[in-house]
Amino acid sequence: MKKKFIIPKDLTFGDLSRELKKYCRAADLEFARSAYDFAAKAHKGQTRLNKEPYIIHPLSSAYILAQMRIDVHIIAAALLHDVPEDTGVTLEEIEKKFGKDIAGIVGGITKLGKLKYRGAERYLENLRKMFVAMAEDIRVMIIKFADRAHNLMTLAPQPPNKQYRIALESLEIYAPIANRLGMGEFKGLLEELSFPYVFPKEFEKTKSMRDNFISGEAPYLEKVIEKAREELNANDIKVLDAHGRKKQLYSLFKKLQQKNWETDKIHDIVAIRIVVPDLNDCYAALGIIHKLWRPLKGRIKDYISQPKPNGYKSLHTTVFCEKGKVVEFQIRTQEMHEEAEYGVSAHWHYDEKGKISKKPAKDIGWAQELAKVQKEVLNKMSDLEELKIDFFQNRIFVFTPNGDVIDLPENGTAVDFAYHIHSEIGNKCSGVRVNDQMVSLDTPLKNGDVVDIIVDQNRKGPNPDWLKFVKTAAARSHIKAAMNAKKRGWLESLLPLGK
Ligand code: MN
């Protein structure tokens, strides 16, 4: 776990203020203080299960965000986040004192608040509420992640069934959403905190496996890092940072499951991360690493020219290193690193120079992503179960012959692609060329494929067998709709239905 997320014992506003001073102006600090005073007064006399005064909880949530150098308005809303729900003070009073914007965020969190249902129903209700909240104001989710992280840190006094439920919900809903929004730091934090409560035995097993690996390999990796650094310097590439990054336990666990716990098939338990000043240096550094050590075929990944759908950028390569051992390198700039850690929250994140990393509202890539999610989800509540699957699957990028990018779930097919473009293209699709080769319609597409759909204008409609292999909710529902229409047409030809 990253050390900076350890919250000091008996946290005070002074601790928060020390963090804020690193990137905030004096006026901002005053604003945060008034939010703290207001919340402390409202929660006066309340305690949590661990006997701490209640205010420690919102203060800790704010502290986590301050360590991420998040904008002070979000910090103030985090301090106030439980006031309307748990105290006699209303949202109107918050609006009067702190303005419409802050009250709007706090109101968004209150709306997320209590869940009515249990079991699967609850899961969907929760998911639906999150999507709505995200679509309305992403800042609500940023606070919700910090709130959830602190709840996980203080889960010990809760009864075991509640511990399990909260941790599972964090693993299955909160962490994937953080990931989809590109907030790698929150995703990692939420997973590491939940993992031991959901899979206690597997957690222990994974941890001891990783610890053993690290204690065995650390001296070797140190030497490799030194050698890489020397070689890069000798070629006039400035190395801003070079270090071993441990794979986080929950993602290691998922990979171990995929590979039947054969640890020698996992090459990134510790990967070597190299940070260089700019884009050109990334590619130059990759070339130098490859000159030094031979790369494994098919393991060079250019996430700079083709970022992951959550925005992740880096060059990855796996090489036969000293003594023939296999080592993964990840090469990136500082900016790419911050983007990967903060994702959409970078819009409210202050960098080392005290500047907003990205100006809000200017770069609307993430907003478009949200608008898409909102449209899909809100229009089709009934298909939520399927959309949930769509949303959380790993994504790939493929291209139209004109070079337009289409993102699909992993293993998506030409039929998914066709329906993504237009329902009529899907209904009339009769074949496909992938990278200039004719392949069958059920062939899983791969990242970077160029997909050219062959349309047959005389085709009557989709083949029901397509349902066996399509991966997107859109394709599935179009195929079903076309089948139903066909049935209706057939019935109508037999019976005079209606007029
Ligand atoms: Mn809370």
Mean pLDDT comes to 84
Compute the number of structural domains.
3
What is the SS-derived class? Answer: alpha+beta
Distance between the termini: 68 Å
Helix proportion range: 40-55%
Number of strands: 11
The first-level CATH class of the largest domain is given as Mainly Alpha
Instruction: Kindly report the CATH topology of the largest domain.
Output: Hypothetical protein af1432
Q: Note poorly predicted spans.
A: 359-364, 377-385
Account of the protein in words:
It is built from 20 helices and 11 strands. A hairpin with a 2-residue loop joins strand 9 (429-434) and strand 10. It has helices spanning 13-21, 26-42, 56-67, 72-79, 83-86, 91-98, 100-112, 119-136, 138-153, 160-180, 184-198, 200-234, 249-258, 279-292, 334-342, 365-379, 384-392, 414-421, 423-427, 473-494; strands spanning 241-246, 270-276, 294-295, 301-302, 315-320, 326-333, 395-399, 405-409, 429-434, 437-439, 451-455. Strands 1, 2, 3, 4, 5 and 6 form a 6-stranded mixed sheet that branches. A 3-stranded antiparallel sheet has the order 10-9-11. The protein has a two-stranded antiparallel sheet with strand order 7-8. The protein is globular, with a radius of gyration of 25 Å. The chain is α+β, with helices and mostly antiparallel strands and 499 residues long. It has 3 domains: 13-198, Hypothetical protein af1432 (Orthogonal Bundle); 201-348, 2-Layer Sandwich (Beta Polymerase, domain 2), CATH 3.30.460.10; 394-498, Ubiquitin-like (UB roll) (Roll). Residues 57, 81-82, 147 line the site of manganese (II) ion.
